Amino acid sequence: MEMSKTFFHELAKRALATLPPEDRFTPEDAALLQSEKDYLLGLGEGLVQAFYDSLFAHPPTREVFQEGERPAREETLRSWWRRTVEGPFDEAYWAWQAYVGLLHVRRKVTNTMMWGHAGLVARYVGAQALSAGKPALAEAAQRLMATVGAVIGEAYQEVYLEVLAEATGQSRALIEANVKVAIEEVTGGRPL
């Protein structure tokens, strides 16, 4: 399966288009992050510490790492945080988030791990912002991480479906129909 830059751009656009507006990171949120850039960059070290302390304290997430690699992974998160805070939040940024999500999958980081720690980032930044009397910044951080998680989740699902279609020779429509049938069997056709 070939995944070009266009693939990630289109994937990110689809994810952003389906995310409800009240959950999606907005241009106003981006402007707020820009206006609070120095404050947010100052949170970086605490965020990195909280993020990796949590991952290394939990056996299932600890297993993802090789011995001695924590400093390199911490630097990766610092770089992500700087790029995120500094912006811009353009099409390239969201395509990059889709790509970053797939890099995590390659390392056997599950969606639950990624979304859980997207929540940790939102909670950490939100708590710091609320303590500093910046409730709008806390809300923007929540929408940012919800949007990052949505883009990553969409990338994960899309790549799995594409690879499955390619590996089995089945069309996406047939795979999706089979999934629908399986869900009907599991749920007994009961509505939500």
Describe the structure.
The protein has 192 residues and is mostly helical. It is 79% helix and 0% strand. The protein is built from ten helices and no strands. α4 packs across α6. The longest helix has 34 residues. The chain is globular. The two termini are 35 Å apart. 21% of the residues are buried. The model has no long low-confidence stretch (mean pLDDT 92).
| Helical/strand content category | mainly alpha
| Low-confidence runs | none
Question: What percent of residues adopt helix (DSSP H or I)?
Answer: over 70%
Radius of gyration over all CA atoms, rounded = 18 Å
Give the assembly state of these chains: single chain
What's the average pLDDT?
Answer: 92
Structure in a nutshell:
By secondary structure, the protein is an all-alpha fold. 79% of the residues lie in helices and 0% in strands.
Topology:
Elements: H1 5-18, H2 27-35, H3 37-42, H4 44-57, H5 59-62, H6 70-86, H7 91-106, H8 111-131, H9 135-168, H10 172-187
Helix pairs in contact: 1-7, 1-9, 2-9, 4-6, 7-9, 8-9
Output the keywords.
192 residues, mainly alpha
